Amino acid sequence: MNAPVAVTDLASLSMTEAADAFATGEVAATALVEACLARIDAHDAVVNSVIRLDREAALEAAAAADAARAAGRPLGKLAGVPMMHKDMYYRAGRVSSCGSKIRRDFIPGVTATVLERLDAAGAIDMGTLNMAEFAQNPTGHNAHFGHCHNPWDPAYCTGGSSSGSGAGVAARFFYAALGSDTGGSIRLPATLCGVTGLKGTQTRVSRAGVMPLSFSCDNVGPLVRTARDAARFMAVTAGHDPRDPTSAREPVPDYEAALTGDIRGLRIAVCETFFLDGADAPVVAAFEAALDALRARGAVVTRISASSMRAINAYTAMVSRVEGAAIHANWMREHPGDYAIHLSARLFGGYAFPAHLYVEALSRRGPLLRQFVAEALTGHDIVATPTLKTRVPTLAETDIDADPANWSRFMAVSANTRPFNYLGLPTISIPCGFDDRGLPIGLQLAGRPFAEATVLKAADAFQRETGWHCKAPAL
Predict the structure, then answer these.
(1) Where would I find the Amidase domain in this sequence (predicted)?
(2) Rg of the chain's alpha carbons, rounded to an integer?
(3) Annotated catalytic residue: which of 86, 199, 389, 457?
């Protein structure tokens, strides 16, 4: 950034722009926090993205960051940047509700590793965000804290379960937010709210100190404005954690260094099996235009099919349902009436799967991953799909507590995202257009295990070619 940042423009900065502007002295951390607080005060009564706002603590942290910079002390990669996070990331001594009645007053004694890493990088934590109850729905409905509303039009879904994270980043309430992704819960709010969301390779980021949903499918990751934001965020948060024995020991590369804008020769597979079945016309049109934009940057696009998709889709739902039921077994016995109706139905449904089918789903995971890689990624670097097959649905159209007949529309929201959790592949969703009602449409890009750098490179090149990620709701 070459010119001083105008105060009126602060809330519109991307995360990396805000971090770089603070590091060079163009803007104070206090000014960044105040800009975010002003947006929240003006608009969150409609959006309902915030559960807990730590206003004074954020301003104190910002003043400390300003003093540290003035004193010439070393600054972290995210120093001075205000963030808020999904209310399932534990911070010792602070309530973590997990969007539920059962944990409305729960105070953990530990802090999530990912929060500790953000703290060490200098990020400013302003509080916690609304979410689907126990991270278990794809739409953003919450019977206990109120539904989160899409900042593009409050009648519409935000996507879930990281609803407050997606809506708040889109509304310019903060510059980045942690979400979690078990069946699409980062990528769906990113798509429905018109921002960028990254799910890394399974085990890429520590899950220590995070409320679990599914042992096999949970992922930690960011919702941000740009692919560059996601790259920097991942550079800070990824890597092995002794507190999480499942976390990968794979070295963490310099993700930002990969963002050259040059994707000449990048091979993109369009999997026409399953992912485009029944897709709405505006979604298909935006997806095809996105492919053209990638071609304009030098990518080579090929149409393929994948016979593995039917089995992958079936096993995905089974694994998350059974593991979710196991995690909630005691609460389901002791507090069954404290769950929303739709969540009780989903959790009890997890007990209906025979043990041998669950074991089969786990044992088939490796072979199906190898089969999908052979079908879709042998000879290709990226698989491209629409993130959501349909136009953004309304809250009423997907409220299954009010009308169980909405179940099929509710479950269809995550159809294109769930398979990549079962496969464990790194996947990003970025804005690629708007439908005829002015609601966002998302492009999903997936890569080989631990190929986050390739996925981010493709997403960044797309964002250099287009301007969809720069658009903000009028509120």
Answers:
(1) 32-456
(2) 21
(3) 86
